[in-house]
Amino acid sequence: MKPATFDYLLLGLLLSGPLSGYDLRSLIADTPLSTYTDSPGSMYPALRRLEARGWVQADEPVGRRRRRAFELTEEGRAALVAWLRRPVERQDVASHPDKLLLRFAFLAPAGLLDLAPRFLEEYEQENRAYLASLRRYQAEQAAQLPLTGRLAFEHGVQQYRARMAWARRARRNLAAEQARMTTEDRDATQ
Amino acid sequence: MKPATFDYLLLGLLLSGPLSGYDLRSLIADTPLSTYTDSPGSMYPALRRLEARGWVQADEPVGRRRRRAFELTEEGRAALVAWLRRPVERQDVASHPDKLLLRFAFLAPAGLLDLAPRFLEEYEQENRAYLASLRRYQAEQAAQLPLTGRLAFEHGVQQYRARMAWARRARRNLAAEQARMTTEDRDATQ
DNA sequence: GGCATCATGTAAATCGTTACATGATTGC
DNA sequence: GCAATCATGTAACGATTTACATGATGCC
User: Fold this and answer.
1) pTM exceeds 0.90 for this model
2) What pLDDT does residue B190 have?
3) Do A35 and B94 touch (CB under 8 A)?
4) Of the candidates A121, A113, A98, A127, which has an alpha carbon nearest to the alpha carbon of residue A15?
5) Of the residues A57, A178, B25, B41, which has the fewest C-beta atoms closer than 10 A?
């Protein structure tokens, strides 16, 4: 079976070190990741799936504690990197926007910061294309929609506009950060 | 079992008249509703669930055609109206934003346009509250996030800001529309 | 006659939700 | 000792996905 976004979320959270199921649940519950489920009935089966795939491995519990921390295997890291490297698809822009942002968020901890500018270009491009299709629909069909339908549609349009604006700002932000780090490197080696 | 958003989507689409499973699938596939599934394996079981609940009923197929159009029953309409009347909840703002917009979109066709201003006030209010909690998290935790994590977080912040801006504009838009309709009524009765 | 589209369904596998259940550890 | 929290799981149910399957209708 194809792993779900949730599986990659877990892999991504394990990038920064081994965590137990409970740790992962707490992380999800206490941060803006709470769009994802933190129920034990999802977490523990998911961890066993990942373990069966060989993408994570549990260390032995210390003493009598039941706690088992999971760490990424090399295969797990490779699978996550392959997922992060995937191009931005139109379908994801329209239907799974949070999946794309999750992938972007994990670029730096996965050591793939150099992919971030291209990701942002693709993200802006695909949002632009989808927005154009929305505008076409709006021109042709919006008059037939009820008032609140038209307004709800406009809500979507504004969301995509905000995403494009964010992508442009994020690119500038990345470039500035890159410049700052280069300067620091130069100063450090002086 | 508690009906899912998908079930209410079908009820809402049936507000404007009887439709077959195929019609509903086409509607979803050809409009910006395509975040919802149009697979037959979801549609036909869902229609049978709604039929079992007594919320829709199928008319008899005409002649030898297999097509069966479903129409809303009074119970179905009442269930949809009860769903539309529910207050805007914090949890939905954070985790199920499209569900809220779907509810808003169906207000006018359900004859509940008078609820739209209150909905927008609640929507703006709950977005504001959630945004405030994001800002608190940002102030406390953002420094520990990797660069792309911080930027992804900022993406979320901008989405909520865009939603609030939309809600304000939509309220003005509704008020203007209301004024226009009142004027037209007066002119019509003169 | 043949093709596109209309039209409805089923089966298997998997996944998520909800509720239940249990026990260890830590701090007071 | 007790309560809060840490910690991991299972069972039942229902829903979704994917793929398969079938047949009718309308048009050229």
Assistant:
1) yes
2) 64
3) yes
4) A113
5) B41
